[in-house]
Write the structure tokens for this entry.
Amino acid sequence: GAVVSQHPSRVICKSGTSVKIECRSLDFQATTMFWYRQFPKQSLMLMATSNEGSKATYEQGVEKDKFLINHASLTLSTLTVTSAHPEDSSFYICSATPLGASTDTQYFGPGTRLTVL
Amino acid sequence: GQNIDQPTEMTATEGAIVQINCTYQTSGFNGLFWYQQHAGEAPTFLSYNVLDGLEEKGRFSSFLSRSKGYSYLLLKELQMKDSASYLCAVLDSNYQLIWGAGTKLIIKP
């Protein structure tokens, strides 16, 4: 149980285009989903926290107009990287907290590798 | 299917040594990560092993045996601040991260 999927697993796009990444909790409902960015062999950097039905809370330094987060249902959150640039190339990972659990409990997705040319 | 197993919870005493095991079955292997996650915080990178053997970094060491699908994280001279969840994650042949459920480590004085 407690499986989180991400789609796509990898994406290559041209500079200036927008890319949408989906995060789904497959066998549980998630009140809270987290979006992280990981640079090679480094810690996960929390970008934003999203709660179903409300606006996401962004961490300091993360541009909310560039990284659009929508948490439309209890099983789906999307991250859209708008007007992507090469410096946005990274590994994006989401995690989800089951309904009723504290945010200490997070199940992680497999990640989406974004390459911007 | 792909699977990572690690104990759910462990308890140890301040000043002691604890070993957290992780076994994995994945489609391919491109390295194994250990992360530390304190409650309410993002996971912090601890180690990355891709070759067999032991890598030591101060009080923390990580061991990998690819033939056995096994890794462990060794924490020495435990401090209260080491109380956290420890996550094991494997990068598979598609460079996707397969995560363990995490081991909650409780340190007692």
Observations:
- The mean pLDDT of chain A is 91.
